[in-house]
Amino acid sequence: MSAVREGARQAMAWLHGWTGLLLGWVLFMMCFSGTLSVFKPEIGRWMRPETVAKADPVDAITAAITWLAKNSTASTGWYLTAPDERMNIVEAAYDSGGADLYRALNPVTGAPIARETLGGEFFYRLHFELKLPYPWGRLLASLAAFTMLVALITGIIAHRRIFRDFFTFRPGKGQRSWLDGHNALGVLALPFHLMITFTGLVTLASLSMPWGIVAAYGSNLTALYHDMVPGAVDRAATGNKAPLAPIAPMLREAQRRFQGAAIGRVYILNPGDAAAVVTVFRADAGQIASTSGEISFDGTTGRVLADWTEQRPALQAYNVVYGLHMARFAPMLLRWLYFLGGAMLTLTIATGLILWIVKRRERAPLSLGNLILERLNAGVIAGVPLGGIAYFLANRLLPLGVHDRAGAEVSAALWAAAAALLAGAVLPSKIAWPLLLGLLALGCTIAPLLAPLSFDNGALVGGNLVLIVSALGLAAIVVRQVRRLRGPVPIARKARAT
Amino acid sequence: MAGGAQARQNWRYRANIAARAVAGGVGAYAVAALFAAALARVLPVDRVEAVIPATLFAFLVAPGVTIWAFLARGPWRAWAGVIVAILLLGPMVWAAGPPA
């Protein structure tokens, strides 16, 4: 290899390291929560184990609207998602008395589920809002996604032998093993990593890259919105009260016009007002493209106001890119592949962050900066999943009916992650790692035991299995770490043993 | 310690990296933003249908510029590339005038 190309390869390796490190922990959290979000509805079912009632989407939405009409005050809109084979609740987002609420409604009674929880919505929001106020969370997530894209591309360029890395793993050899692991995890699912990073970047484009919009529309966002969704009916409330017409006929009409495709989201704007609008969206499960069609009805008469199917190639392309990221179209097998790909990307990031330290530690004593990174690594890489498991445990342990129960679950997650971060900072890393991963394994073992198992609840069984497998994997790692803590295995003894 | 020369070399290295980092960060974003704006105006289709490919491709342009900033022979070349791109794209956006 010529000196120039070797120099370029090294420059790319350097850039790969630094871009990966720059927002590596943020990316780790984003990938972890994004991976879980693949199973957002199933996590919801795991977290509401008592809710087993099922209802047809039309009946469920009707029940939800009946409840909302009685119990939400002065709402400007009800944004509902109908149940399907994956989700057995009506997801409702609405404002009531000035507060924005998110509720899981029983598909039969329409009332909120007693075990109040955000379910998978917590991970979904965390994935791109990072628990930061709008728009900062989304901007930081965009920036992180961008550094990830650069890290992926430079990682590819920096590699001498992409194909051979597929098959290379040399365990028990310190830096080399971490490098092999990082390479294998990164290379094996590389097309997925590139796809999910690019499409993720695109989902926040209107915020992070609005300059095409600005050039074409200036500040005329009404025109933009109209062009993006020409089928949308947006009309201001009149202030005159009028009851909502029966919803079921509207939903049936929408189903008929979708030609058998299921109804997905149902939005009611200005409920209770004479200018109420009911908009029904086609479910995203039927095609890769998200939001491919919508029908709007006059809320008081039930008359069709607009019927729109997206057919413009550019918009369809965008919806496909968006849909590829959201994976709502994916059937079960593909969803598991998304989960696996996401898990591999999460581990690629974790091993990359660890590799940064291991590499420097093998060369010379760590600088102060790297010593801090080493400790933060343990706190973040173990702390983020510990937050997740605390969230699940809080879901099982918090009494029903306690004030702001859903919020308390989130607090449990944040406090657990903060405690892990503190422990990682205070303890030497060879103690912090086994301690925190041990706690994580313990949490993964306890969580499945806290609800009665019923074998017809697939999400409960599947979720518990994932937890148990995680616990076993973590336990194996902790055992190794503890053994090493007792002192390195003398080479002579190792040789005799084999 | 052979302080002087060492320190000067350190400083040069840091300035090199800093110049490239700004070119690959702020510069890359500026080029991508101008690219999106120019393409959104130049593509001969409905404006919403121009905005979408313009925005999607901008996300490929940005990492390209970032990588260029660190691949170029020296920081001056890195910046020269960024400035040439801006000088090519900027007038296209300017020539298109304010949006209708």
What key phrases describe this protein's structure?
heterodimer, A: 498 residues, alpha+beta, 7-stranded antiparallel sheet, 20 helices, 7 strands, B: 100 residues, mainly alpha, 3 helices
Task: Give the number of DSSP strands of chain A.
Answer: 7
Which range does the strand content of chain A fall in?
5-15%
**What order do the SSEs of chain B take from the amino end to the carboxyl end, as H and E?**
HHH
Helix content of chain A: 55-70%
The average pLDDT score of chain A comes to 92
Radius of gyration of chain A: 25 Å
Query: Uncertain regions of chain B: pLDDT < 50 for 5+ in a row?
Result: none
Number of helices of chain A: 20
- The number of E-state strands of chain B comes to 0
Multimeric state of these chains? heterodimer
Question: How many distinct domains of chain B?
Answer: 1
Number of helices of chain B: 3
The percentage helix of chain B is over 70%
What topology emerges from the helices and strands here?
The complex is a heterodimer of chains A (498) and B (100).
Chain A: H1 3-22, H2 24-37, H3 40-47, H4 57-71, E1 77-81, E2 90-96, E3 99-105, H5 121-129, H6 136-158, H7 162-165, H8 175-188, H9 190-203, H10 205-208, H11 211-217, H12 221-228, H13 247-257, E4 263-269, E5 277-282, E6 293-298, E7 304-309, H14 313-326, H15 332-363, H16 368-397, H17 405-426, H18 429-446, H19 458-485, H20 491-497
Helix pairs in contact in A: 1-6, 2-5, 2-6, 2-15, 2-16, 3-19, 4-13, 6-9, 8-15, 9-14, 15-16, 16-17, 16-18, 17-18, 18-19
Chain B: H1 3-42, H2 47-71, H3 75-96
